[in-house]
Batch of 4 targets.
Target 1
Amino acid sequence: MNLEFNTIPGEIKPVIDYKGINILFDTGAGTPVWSRGIELFKIHFPDAVKKNYKFILSGFGRSQDELIEFLREFSCVDNVNSDFLADVYSIPSFVLESKGGHIEWKNLNVAVTNRKAQGYHLILPSPMFGGMILSYAQDELFHKIVINSPVETKYTFIKLIDRNDSKMLSFIYTQEQ
């Protein structure tokens, strides 16, 4: 099964417009992130359910030293109001489809934040495509992202760790073998 998506003209990064959502395929990311705030997220994913834990969100222009400092000061998720923490929502069924078929992630956990300066609504990390071949080219003739997958459905699971009597999300996405 091959899914093909045209990339947005002029974008240097692999970005598609999928049903009004600008999606960045990010090889450096480790978790799906919605970066346009909770209000717009709920419009696109009205069935999403807020989870009772948060995700520690690194990257987005912050240094590793800033993250380390945050983790040193961190004591309890419930008592922290930080730019590093993002609410987690579970989308019951997230589907990417094209003429070549579809891939569905069940209960996809997404960190929801408000980082409008990023320019993308949704960041999909490469680990979501484990077991698939994800190719991207953007030159004068070829402006596509191609996902080749032997199966049509993938599942997401979460792993929680306990720290100071608080649940903290360690991995937001893993693939069932």
Target 2
Amino acid sequence: MKKMFSFGLVILVLIGIVYGFKKINKSSPKLEMYMAMGDSLLVATSYGENVYKELEDVNEFNDIVKRSNLDSNSLLRFIEVKATIVKGNNSEKISNLIGKSKYITIQVGLNDLNSNVRFNKVEQKFYYDVEVVERICANLQENIYNIVNEIREINKDVKVLVIGYYLPFSSLDDNEKAIGLELYGELNSSLRLGAYDSGAVFVDISDLSNEMYLVDGFLNEEGKKKLVSLIVASCKQK
């Protein structure tokens, strides 16, 4: 009788271990994707692919949420409604991609700012309303906070990185360059605060405003390498 009882107890313990193992596996899926979401800088430089090549602990890359006109309001909405994103012949549910991701980089905010800021290429001058820019930046900070929290509702283990901006003008006079740096400083400050408040990592790329990294406002090869190295370093940082 004792032997039967002992045998039955062993079976129950083994069943419990197997069940527990399955439960752990189910609740903790292996995260093997790097996902890049962003606007014109991601489109123009395709830095996502080069960052992916440098990350040794992921084996899948996705940048389906990559569009020149992306702003923070649109990105937040995509994630909130768990939208299906269509790109060419491919379509993906954004929540499924987030759920598989180990790293997610987000770069939005420039289109938010540019909805009010106009740059006259002939005069090489910025035109904007200070109060409107302040409201835009406050809204951007709140959106970044909400975007990161929405992502974490789907995947609590993902590392989220918010990428800043550099001033993409290399031929301004000193006065306009100071104005531009102040504007982009406000933009980056909003992104930084939204990231920090939500527990995300802010990647400061403002050093790329240096003329040594620019050609006609676009990143040269050294600038692109520097951008990738800054993002990769932030991904790897514990």
Target 3
Amino acid sequence: MRKEWIIRLLKTLTKEEYEQVLRNAKSQGFKVDGFKDVTKVPVARLAAILNNNNKNMKLHLKMLVSIANAIIAQCEFVLEKGEENKQVVLRDKIARSALHKGTDKDVSIDKMLDELEQAKEQQAEQAVTKEQSAVKEETKEEAKTENRQLKRILESNEPQKKLEELKQQMLELTETAEKLKAKNKKLDEKIILLNMDNEDKDKTIKRLEKELNHAKVCEEREEELISLQKEFDELKSEQASLLERMKEKDSELSLVKDQLELYQEENSRKVLMFTKKKLAADHFPGYRIQIAISFGMGHRIPFEDYDEIWVITRDFAYATLQEIKRAAKKEADKDVYTFYSHKVIKTV
């Protein structure tokens, strides 16, 4: 086993795979100076630790197994979805070869890692080339459109015609503006006279309003009080009616909830889910979920009591996943459904 393999494999991990490796290392007591939480250690720091630690082969072996299992689990998830490509196949082959699970003993891991890096570079180059081609085509099409528009304008002599039309419009607008100025001057003089007359009328109106308001204030207050009392009585009656209707709706809602709970209890499928994440009981509507956070350790699990067996693969090592599948098939003839994360599970 060469530590260079481990470091190169480490640098090919996705963010999710790297987090899984650190969680496994933390569970086995792995510690790094300056980090209270091992799961926060950057890739470069972990690579430097492995590169400088030449004597602790046990650490290298644990990291190799953890990295390889994380890659294999992710590749299996991608391949199950039918998204096979050269990089996925290469990563799966490299990880299995590193664990001595490959069929060809002469396979060179270094060579396969070189092929993986070349495949990534080719993919990046193809993406850049495709984007550049699209930009060139778009620019070429825009230039053609602009040339056609310019040619059509020059051939039709439209600029000269528009210039003559604008000159005529400017002349007409100038004449109209002069007429409006003269008319506005007359209007301003008339407005001044009207304002003077309005001031006198406003003074008279204010005096009369003051006299009338004093006489009507008592009558208006009495009418307002009667109106408010009537509105209060109507609101009180409406409130009593609404409270009665709310009681009836609460009773109906309680009955519907009881019927719904009974229906779900009788018709929902019972599922055993292996995961280390705490989930609410109603997280998957239509299913009764029983959570198991571990497997083995001398405890027998009654697979026959459940309709389906689910496993969140990111929470367990590859070996543990295989043990669960064998036990479910042997003891209850049950197939195991695997999901990389609970977020990808779709329920009806």
Target 4
Amino acid sequence: MVIKDLYGILELIKGAQIKFRRILSENDTNKFKIGISSNGIDKKVDAIDGMVSHTFIVEESGLYDIFIENDETVSITGTVIIK
């Protein structure tokens, strides 16, 4: 399993949004997940047909890790907006 930490640890406040927009792999058969983690709890969303878009809402202020997880090395592109 390959986990790519996108920003390091970020301090986010309750209500903040982490928007993954059109996260695409080079091939629609590639499997990967996007996610956030805080206090040892991961929230993940699976890509379907090599693509995923999702908005996570921060439920509790704290330290968060934002990541992409996959089982193989693949090229992934897209936009992540934190507000």
